Amino acid sequence: MAWVVAEVVEETAGQWFERDLSLRAQLVAASSRASLAANWDTERKAELERQLIEIARDERVMAVAACSPQGALLADTPQFPEALSCREIGLRAKSEQSSSATLMRAWSTVSRLPGGSIHVSAIPLWDGGRGQIGFLLLLQDMSYAERREELTRVFLVVGFAVLGLLASVFTIFVARFTRRSWSAELRNMLRHGAQTRPEFQPILRDVRELIEKVMAEREDAPGVWTAERLKQTLGRHLQGERIIILANREPYVHERMTDGEVRVLHPASGLVTALEPVMRACSGVWVAHGSGSADRDRVDRYDRVRVPPGEESYHIRRVWLTREEESGYYYGFSNEGLWPLCHLAHARPVFREEDWAYYRKINERFADAVCAEVDSDDPIILVQDYHFALVPALIRGRLPAATVIMFWHIPWPNSEQVGICPWRQEILEGLLGSSILGFHTQFHCNNFMESVDRYLEARIDREQQGVARRGHHTLVRPYPISLEWPVRWLSDAPSADECRRRVWEDLNLKPDALLGVGVDRLDYTKGIEERLLAVERLLERFPEFRGRFSFVQVAAPSRTKIERYRQLNEAVEQLSSRINERFGGEEYQPIILLRTHHEPPDVFKFYRAAHLCYVSSLHDGMNLVAKEFVAARDDQQGVLVLSQFTGAARELTEALIVNPYDLEKVSTALACALSMPVAEQRVRMRSMRSLVAHFNVYRWAGEMLVDAARVRSRERLAGQLTESPEVSVGG
Ligand code: F6P
Predict the structure, then answer these.
(1) Which ligand 1 atom minimizes the distance to the CA of 267?
(2) Does residue 671 share a domain with residue 624?
(3) Is 522 helix (H, G, I), strand (E, B) or coil?
(4) Residue 712 domain flag
(5) Nearest CA among 438, 429, 421, 431 for reference residue 457
(6) Which one of 136, 261, 525, 613 is at 20 to 30 Å from 475 when CA atoms are compared?
(7) Tens of pLDDT along 296-309?
(8) Closest CA to ligand 1's atom 10
């Protein structure tokens, strides 16, 4: 646009310049006419030339020539160009004036010479009785005109650009201002909907619907879930309320060491690994058993402590248990009863009446603690795991409008197995106090529904995936748990090479050693004995790995007051020694057993250093160690060998999936993992990493919360319909 305007302006200005130059030429000729006429004679050529030079003194006049009426040159200034002649110009001028003999009036043109453009004027001169004595050729420099045109063009383009910019800024400013005041007005209307004028009500309704739709789409959107996205989802559904998590295990334990110093430990717990980042994102309160030896020294008068240390963003509310209470509720009913009941791992469940009494009492205590922390009638409470099967119904009794999300972190067995529990009915009823009951897999949901069908009077709604009982509805859905992404322990972790160097040094491994890793609580469900036997079988069947392959088992002691766990401890110890004696020597140990608590950075160092990770659970709800190994391998190397009896095996299908009882097949898989080409490792690892990144724990929590929001709005609507006398349901 600016360019077109510049062209038009240039052309017009060009015409003006030419006319101006023609007039100047005529003026110059007129003012010198008398003296020129006096010397207009070949006889007086020298005088005529002097006069012409005088005329050419004008800074714009380049050259002048005196020509006879017929076009002969009488005199000229020294700079007169050879390319121009009186004859040629005379002829052109005359022909344009349709005159053959004389030039009738002043004529001008522009000549393009190698040095630039020149304005040429031919001005006829008359002298009284002599008539026309000839014509004067006056050449004027046009370069200044061209320079002016160029300048005009630049000014125009720049001017237009500046104008355009100003116009845009102005438009944006006006648009912003208008939108701001419009959205402020809209926000105001949305907030004070009831007071809005009736004519605005339809538009308000449309806007509300649109907001609902956009928010729902955002929450269902396929993009990656982040802490921020979870926070926003929560903000919308909780309207600024605090989130309350109830879990037996606390995320930070204050432990007094033998030297008297208090250290903050991160317990080895999949539940904590998953939920702690959720709590960081959402803030609120985590109600838990205060189990650390220095826990009481670190709480305020409400038994609360702010965590995480150094970046406090939420509270732990500690609940205290006596030794007897812990023994009956935690070790007894939870871990000698429900734990083996739910895991098919060949440990006989033990149900004692006194444990059950403690379980009920402690569930009441935790329910009270939770209810003391809420600050509304309809809070959202996330209850975790088999330690609190009775809590959902207890909370429902105290806060009928609460939204209780119960997540069962371990498998749910088939209904026959459930029948072993003498208090199966109470357990099922307790769980059905939840609004949402989550398991890791659909299979566990189905088992639960069958158990309800078998042991309770309830309506199973298979289409909606729920159970209705005594007017209350519970959604029963799978929500496969996962990790935060990216995992915080990796943010300042050393490179995989550096981790390998350190681990090699710590474990005194040979440079060409091959390393496998296992990370678990020392629990019989994890198949640690089967794992060690598989390593032994590998060394039996594939001698090339003897002296080269070592398996490091990081084993956090767990529930050591229970006999079965003590037995396991001993069994693992003996098995390791036997294998080491059989295949090891002075310099080499096939099994390296590290039976102590390791903090997450150390665990991740092993994950990053190892060539393979073997997760051999005999039965496991999810198993987050498998996902942690995948998350740790940003070098896209390493092979995961994974038990088919974990929830994780349904998602991490690029792992080498094995039956941990089948030692032949597992040893083949281990050999295969140790000789897997780098490119294949990369393909498998990349695919698993993308899955874990996408289905991370923010998504896990977010999806449950979005479902909870739907339940809440459905319940509110149902409440409104029954409360409102004007509305009748079903005609
Ligand atoms: O795997 C089941 C589970 O309860 C997890 O939820 C938890 O991470 C783990 O066991 C730890 O158990 P505990 O709290 O008894 O040490």
Answers:
(1) 16
(2) yes
(3) coil
(4) no
(5) 429
(6) 525
(7) 999 999 999 999 99
(8) 269
